[in-house]
Design brief:
Glucose Oxidase, domain 1; mainly beta; homodimer; 3 helices
């Protein structure tokens, strides 16, 4: 079994969406003799996280509405590191995108350890294509899955179709191909997102 | 594939260790048009979580020192719901505890949706026995793995031997037996614990 850790580390200096200071996690450490305890305060969209429909759809479903099984899924990593602006339906059609898998979009975002406002994103046409392919979920190595699209159509197409969005992945060193995704989000219920530790597992032939 | 969710839900009313109000998670929800965003503030030992040595050992290893593979592991659920006070080496010896697995201790704690100060715990002798069995980790359905043991010997024996402690499990309805544990903690590094969504997976024969 080989495990790829595809998560961002949460620390006070982690890069955050649009570099907004209020999105940085805050840690308060207390020491009492040999006992150490920490309090963590964070935005649910900081670091690697799952978006639920409620994030972008008024009265949409919250994170607790997803069955946990969604986050243990066959997954396909697609390499779009050659794309310079965005991933559209045309680019996706050049790949052999499987049906009914969790699609993981690898871009050159994974090479950057800072917030790039020009991050590669999934455009509206790409979201429609993945919806039509029956994607279980869509993951991307950016803190947002879209940018500069008025009305957030990528979010709305995916979330409106019940497709999980997994943001803030780190995919450097992960080859294109098939994996088993394990990305169980923290167990929240009525909220619009949840932080997650995401991993891709490659089973040995002998397993 | 059958998945058992063995995690506590994090919400403002979740029960916490010793009912300390400062251990309750705090959620701040912001709505801006159709966009909803939430900030979560929580103690790292609230809900289901992993303890690292640093929690109880001065200058001990922090959570980032554990390899992620530790949290994807063969696991054995042992039913101790008949125990009234604690789990000791004698009780463990009556079970066929496997070597080199993540041992999950199910007790009558799982039947209680409140903090019981008399929760069932793993005593010092039990910790020594599991260490000697080469346990990869030890999970329990209590917010602490010990109580009323001066000097925290259970924590120190396990953590001192590099054995992962997984606290705050919910095991009602989970039969004794063999599983695959998936419990990847949030990716923190220099801290003494991390919250986790924990699951037990039963593979279909056909998988």
């Amino acid at each position: 079994m080989k495990i790829y850790d595809i998560s961002m580390e949460l620390n006070p200096n982690v890069f955050v969406y649009k570099n907004k200071p209020e999105k940085k996690p805050v840690f308060e450490v207390t020491e009492n003799g040999y006992v150490t305890e920490t309090n963590l305060s964070m935005n649910l969209h900081t670091g690697t996280h799952i978006d639920a429909p409620l994030h972008m759809i008024k009265d949409g479903a919250a994170i607790g509405a997803y069955d946990l099984a969604r986050f243990f899924s066959p997954a396909q990593v697609l390499d779009f590191t050659g794309e310079k602006e965005k991933i559209s339906a045309a680019a996706l059609k050049e790949k052999n995108v499987k049906r009914n898998v969790f699609v993981i979009l690898k871009t050159k975002n994974s090479e950057k350890e800072y917030f790039d406002p020009e991050f590669i994103y999934l455009d509206e046409s790409g979201a429609g294509y993945l919806r039509d392919q029956g994607a279980i979920g869509v993951g991307i190595d950016a803190l947002g899955i879209e940018r500069n699209q008025p009305g957030h159509p990528t979010h709305k197409i995916l979330l409106g179709a019940g497709i999980v969005i997994l943001e803030g992945l780190r995919l450097k060193g992960v080859p294109e191909g098939d994996y088993f995704l394990a990305a169980p989000p923290l167990k929240l219920n009525g909220y619009e997102a949840a932080p997650v530790r995401a991993a891709l597992i490659e089973w040995d032939k002998a397993d």
